[in-house]
């Protein structure tokens, strides 16, 4: 994972102090590229323990075309909770304690944090138990799952069907591997305003040469300490899955970043991680057993030989 540590060092050394939407403040560079050869092992962070289980359940959620956090809540995956919760506490129906700016206040205000945790637990319980509530407040809008599997409603004006970009990708890779048009985009300008968060991993392209399958991602905005380790592993897993589906061997993941930033409250954690020696990479195996990648469950994907340094905690910017 030297590539990742080099990115961290580069941003610490040359990053510019920049304000951001969340009000946290960042050190930021614009434009950076990393390459991961998947033949050398599975690129999950070894310099801090990273929750692979959460990465798997999020990717399978995208692949099923799901955009409702209920599925993630049921799988005990909290990574999208804040963005659904935000919609709930800003709604007219919410009558609990004031949760304005909860993301910024919770890490620094002990008394508020207790209140926030109570409200968040209530919210999750209701998402899990109340169908109508989950349908309204669990849904993040037309985020990744919608764009990947069902891009563009368009039906009323054009009479066209929504596009299953992943099915088309698999089809194209099988039937026309040399094509330079193996592209999937989550960036749908006409639906951005309805999304809880505009897509960060916005567009990717697949490529086949020598029987190997590679993918390059353009990520417009990259939270280096929290988001990027998840994104690298998620796309590496996506390449493995698409390779199984198309009879190819995993090649390279090329990760191209736009605004690549370290949040000001992650700088110490990044420095701690930089003192650690990378270890041997783990490997993964996938049990397809006649299933398509759209029907997999988390237990079908198994990680072995993962011996990371301990976890490093950090607050997430909402
Ligand atoms: N500021 C920000 N950074 C992100 O990376 C990010 C967002 N926002 N918003 C949407 C999604 C949600 N993602 C997330 C959210 C939380 C974790 C997280 O809490 N990771 C912890 C581990 C959690 C655990 O082990 O329970 C970590 O330490 O990596 C990771 C990715 C990635 N995205
Ligand atoms: O997969 C993801 C999702 C989100 N992020 C980070 C990047 C930014 O820090 C925030 C999004 O804020 P914007 O103001 O919309 O750019 O989330 C990530 O790194 N990876």
Automatic annotation (TrEMBL):
Class of this enzyme: transferase
Domain Thymidylate synthase/dCMP hydroxymethylase: 2-318
Matching Pfam families: Thymidylat_synt
A molecular function (GO) term: thymidylate synthase activity
Annotated dUMP binding sites: 21, 180-181, 220-223, 231, 261-263
Primary location group: cytoplasm
Reactions catalysed, as given in the entry: dUMP + (6R)-5,10-methylene-5,6,7,8-tetrahydrofolate = 7,8-dihydrofolate + dTMP
UniProt keyword terms in alphabetical order: Cytoplasm, Methyltransferase, Nucleotide biosynthesis, Transferase
UniProt xrefs under InterPro entries: Thymidate_synth/dCMP_Mease (IPR045097), Thymidate_synth/dCMP_Mease_dom (IPR023451), Thymidate_synth/dCMP_Mease_sf (IPR036926), Thymidylate_synthase (IPR000398), Thymidylate_synthase_AS (IPR020940)
SUPFAM superfamilies from the UniProt entry: Thymidylate synthase/dCMP hydroxymethylase
GO BP annotations listed: methylation
Keyword Repeat in record: no
Keyword match Ion transport: no
Protein task: Catalyzes the reductive methylation of 2'-deoxyuridine-5'-monophosphate (dUMP) to 2'-deoxythymidine-5'-monophosphate (dTMP) while utilizing 5,10-methylenetetrahydrofolate (mTHF) as the methyl donor and reductant in the reaction, yielding dihydrofolate (DHF) as a by-product. This enzymatic reaction provides an intracellular de novo source of dTMP, an essential precursor for DNA biosynthesis.
Description of how the protein assembles with itself and partners: Homodimer.
UniProt protein name: Thymidylate synthase
Natural source organism: Sporosarcina jeotgali
């Amino acid at each position: 994972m030297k590539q990742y540590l080099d990115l961290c060092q580069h941003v610490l050394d040359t990053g510019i102090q920049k304000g951001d939407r969340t009000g946290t403040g960042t050190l930021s560079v614009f434009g950076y590229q990393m390459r991961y050869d998947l033949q050398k092992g599975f690129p999950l962070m070894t310099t801090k323990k990273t929750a692979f289980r959460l990465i798997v359940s999020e990717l399978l959620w995208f692949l099923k075309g799901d955009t409702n956090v209920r599925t993630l809540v049921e799988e005990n995956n909290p990574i999208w909770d804040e963005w659904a919760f935000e919609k709930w506490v800003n709604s007219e129906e919410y009558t609990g304690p004031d949760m304005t700016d909860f993301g910024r206040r919770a890490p620094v205000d002990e008394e508020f944090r207790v209140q926030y945790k109570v409200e968040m637990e209530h919210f999750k319980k209701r998402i899990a138990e109340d169908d109508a509530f989950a349908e309204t407040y669990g849904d993040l809008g037309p985020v990744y799952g919608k764009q990947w599997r069902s891009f563009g409603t368009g039906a009323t004006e054009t009479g066209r069907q929504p596009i299953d970009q992943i099915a088309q990708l698999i089809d194209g890779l099988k039937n026309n591997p040399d094509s330079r048009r193996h592209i999937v985009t989550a960036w749908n300008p006409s639906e951005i305003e309805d999304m809880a968060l505009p897509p960060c991993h916005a567009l990717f392209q697949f490529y086949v040469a020598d029987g190997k399958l590679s993918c390059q991602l353009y990520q417009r905005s990259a939270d280096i300490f929290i988001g990027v380790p998840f994104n690298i592993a998620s796309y590496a897993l996506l390449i493995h899955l698409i390779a199984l589906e198309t009879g190819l061997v995993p090649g390279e993941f090329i990760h191209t970043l736009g605004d690549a930033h370290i949040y000001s409250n992650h700088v110490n954690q990044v420095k701690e991680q930089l003192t650690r020696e990378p270890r041997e990479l783990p490997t993964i195996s996938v049990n397809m057993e006649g299933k398509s990648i759209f029907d997999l469950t988390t237990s079908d994907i198994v990680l072995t030989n993962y011996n990371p340094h301990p976890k490093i905690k950090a607050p997430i910017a909402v």
